[in-house]
């Protein structure tokens, strides 16, 4: 995103999508196929009960994967952010703490799973017929959990270090080894599900070893023993940054656990029994995951293209990119729909043979449960699109709508009234409702994109003024909305004869990022609590991150050059290493804030609600980029002043006197 000539805003869109999406697709497909390979060989070597057993163990591995991705993607985001801020040492500590918490958590999961495996399997819908197989398979998988989790965490970090090829090779190496070992252990050594589990654990160990070897090869940072110290605040920040990946994976866990339990209950009441539905629907979901992996890969690869051009005001490129992404996704999902409807028996046969009831239910399941899979070609890219352009609320709703909002309630309600058939019809119902919601959100956003852009901000240059200070002093002012903090800062700068910086940042940041001044003005210093969900799997730095980094560079540059007053933008935190900084926080009573906002900012109706909203956005922004510090905590500042008690002019005069006294005292 570095400047206006960024290739994201100039290169042919088709070429960009090809460049970014193909690695995403390959990586996601390898992950999907990793799980399917076991089931193919188990199906032929053990039978469908073996596959049913892997399906009740699978949610357990997905829980572990959710934590591994949270730590890995969180450490990756932390790495990218701190490197952007030119803080290599902090970046190293973030990566080290991501690895540390992954090691600790994976060890705990391993021990807990080994001790409580029978109870955990019950939670995920295990039946008596599946129990023996599930225990054998799950016990060995549990032993390999630390290798899987740490390897996955490292894989994300390696990608963020700028070496996606290495990360892909390590994953593919594990997948290939798994494919080779599965038939050897299952058919040659006659080890059944235990053989498949050993093959999986050994493959995960290989990926783990390859990724661990990379620790000494990092290009952007250096990791040594000193960095590998657990720092709670950094570990918490890393985890927070990865929460999006965690929620995405855990939603799948909740669906699978609910589905397995309901299939066991209502399947037992049907002619198919409990085990056939659990086995078949697990396979159906994993095959559909191949479809989703391709669609997610296309859309995730387009994320930086959509995000940059949206912020740069290049609305036509945004619409063109979205059109290509949706077009490709619909084509892929249409092909999948045709296959699911015409050859379900051939698809299920890949996973071994079964009796007549098994094949009958498989055909019914494919045709009903995936009846509206075409809708995924719109719904999935829509959620990623809103994530890319920073619309966190819409992104969160669309991302969770299909799995949590629609599917789980549909499974429970339709299952109660229609039994096993209701479980199957819950799939297309959820797909259809999520599709309608996505289309509605897209239509509104496209209409907004078609509107004319607002003119860019015009910023007045600071006029030449005479510095009255006897020493180089930088004053940072954080303020509640409507407290008059900006005006106090402006008065203070004039009284001291130093420059005042606020809107100047908008023009400079826009020039250095390629984003429009309008976009910078409307999005800087404002972070919704759901914006953490916009840290996508392959997204890297968001526009908000890019703006913060550029503003940080600019603030440091200005502060080192001259005495000045700087308004907001976490300047007190950014300049925390400098000794010549005076940090001020301005607040006032709500009544005073409402009067000022009404008089000067044109707020009339719901003024209090709008003031609270803006202050909340500022607080979230401050907390996110300062590593958890509270924006209005008096401990962060040298001076906290209630402007309502003195008024703007007297407040500026009081601060001036304090600064003069402080500087004179130091000179003496």
Give the CATH superfamily of the largest domain.
Answer: P-loop containing nucleotide triphosphate hydrolases
Average pLDDT works out at 90
**Residue share in helices?**
over 70%
Number of strands: 5
Shape: elongated
Structural class category: mainly alpha
Low-confidence stretches: 452-463
Radius of gyration, whole Å:
28 Å
In CATH, the architecture of the largest domain is: 3-Layer(aba) Sandwich
Largest sheet: 5 strands, parallel
Q: In angstroms, what separates the terminal alpha carbons? A: 48 Å
Number of helices: 24
Number of domains: 3
- Using the coordinates above, name the CATH class of the largest domain: Alpha Beta
Spatial order of strands in the largest sheet: 2-3-1-4-5
Outline the structure in words.
This protein is mostly helical and 668 residues long. It has 3 domains: 188 residues, no CATH class; 184 residues, no CATH class; 194 residues, 3-Layer(aba) Sandwich (Rossmann fold). It has 24 helices and 5 strands. A 5-stranded parallel beta sheet has the order 2-3-1-4-5, sandwiched between helices. Helix 3 runs antiparallel to helix 9 and helix 16 crosses helix 24. It is elongated and about 90 Å long.
Using brief descriptors, characterize the structure shown:
single chain, 668 residues, mainly alpha, Rossmann fold, 73% helix, elongated
């Amino acid at each position: 995103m570095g400047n206006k000539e960024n290739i994201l805003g100039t290169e042919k869109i088709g070429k960009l999508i090809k460049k970014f999406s193909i690695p995403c697709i390959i990586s996601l497909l390898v992950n999907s196929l990793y799980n399917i390979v076991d089931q193919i060989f188990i199906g032929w070597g053990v039978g469908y009960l073996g596959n049913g057993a892997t399906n009740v163990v699978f949610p357990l591995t997905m829980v572990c994967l959710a934590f591994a991705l949270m730590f890995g993607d969180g450490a990756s985001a932390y790495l990218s952010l701190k490197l952007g801020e030119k803080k290599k040492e902090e970046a190293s500590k973030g990566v080290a703490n991501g690895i540390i918490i992954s090691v600790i958590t994976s060890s705990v999961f391993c021990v807990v799973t080994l001790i409580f495996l029978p109870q955990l399997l019950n939670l995920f819908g295990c039946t008596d017929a599946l129990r023996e197989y599930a225990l054998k398979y799950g016990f060995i998988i549990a032993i390999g959990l630390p290798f899987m989790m740490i390897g996955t965490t490292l894989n994300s970090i390696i990608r963020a270090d700028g070496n996606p090829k290495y990360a892909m090779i390590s994953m593919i190496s594990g997948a290939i080894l798994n494919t080779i070992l599965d038939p050897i252990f299952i058919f040659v050594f006659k080890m059944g599900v235990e053989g498949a589990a050993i093959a999986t654990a050994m493959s995960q160990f290989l990926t783990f070893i390859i990724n661990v070897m990379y620790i000494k090869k990092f290009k952007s940072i250096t990791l040594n023993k000193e960095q590998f110290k657990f720092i709670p605040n950094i570990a918490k920040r890393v985890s927070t940054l990865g929460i999006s990946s965690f929620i995405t994976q855990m939603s799948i866990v909740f669906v699978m656990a609910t589905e397995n339990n309901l299939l066991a209950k209502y399947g037992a009441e049907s002619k198919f029994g409990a085990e056939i539905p659990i086995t078949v629907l697990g396979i159906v979901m994993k095959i559909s995951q191949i479809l989703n992996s391709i669609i997610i890969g296309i859309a995730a690869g387009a994320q930086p293209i959509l995000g940059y051009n949206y912020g740069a005001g290049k609305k036509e490129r945004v619409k063109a990119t979205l059109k290509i992404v949706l077009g490709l996704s619909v084509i892929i999902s249409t092909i999948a729909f045709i296959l699911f409807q015409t050859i379900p028996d051939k698809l299920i046969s890949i996973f071994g043979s079964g009796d007549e009831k098994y094949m009958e239910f498989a055909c019914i399941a494919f045709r009903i449960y995936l009846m509206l899979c075409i809708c995924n070609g719109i719904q999935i890219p829509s959620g990623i699109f809103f994530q890319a352009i920073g619309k966190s609320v819409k992104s969160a709703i669309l991302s969770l709508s299909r799995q949590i909002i629609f599917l789980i309630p549909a499974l429970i309600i339709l299952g109660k009234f229609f039994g096993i058939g209701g479980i199957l019809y819950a799939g297309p119902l959820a797909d259809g409702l999520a599709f309608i919601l996505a289309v509605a959100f897209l239509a509104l956003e496209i209409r907004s994109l078609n509107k004319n852009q607002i003119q860019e901000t015009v910023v007045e240059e600071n006029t030449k003024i005479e510095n009255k200070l006897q020493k180089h002093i930088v004053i940072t002012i954080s303020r509640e909305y409507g407290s008059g903090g900006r005006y106090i800062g402006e008065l203070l700068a004039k009284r001291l004869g130093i420059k005042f910086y606020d809107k100047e940042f908008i023009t400079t940041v826009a020039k250095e990022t390629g984003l429009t001044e309008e976009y910078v003005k409307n999005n800087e210093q404002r972070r919704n609590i759901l914006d953490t969900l916009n840290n996508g799997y392959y997204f890297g730095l968001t526009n908000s991150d890019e703006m913060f980094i550029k503003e940080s560079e600019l603030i440091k540059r200005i502060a080192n050059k001259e005495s000045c007053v700087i308004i907001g933008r976490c300047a007190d935190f950014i300049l925390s290493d400098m000794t010549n900084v005076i940090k001020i926080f301005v607040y006032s009573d709500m009544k005073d804030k409402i009067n000022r906002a009404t008089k000067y900012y044109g707020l009339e109706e719901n003024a209090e609600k709008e003031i609270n909203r803006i202050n909340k956005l500022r607080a979230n922004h401050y907390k996110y980029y300062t590593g958890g510090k509270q924006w209005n905590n008096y401990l962060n500042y040298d001076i906290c002043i209630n402007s309502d008690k003195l008024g703007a002019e007297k407040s500026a005069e009081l601060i001036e006197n304090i600064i003069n006294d402080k500087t004179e005292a130091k000179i003496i």
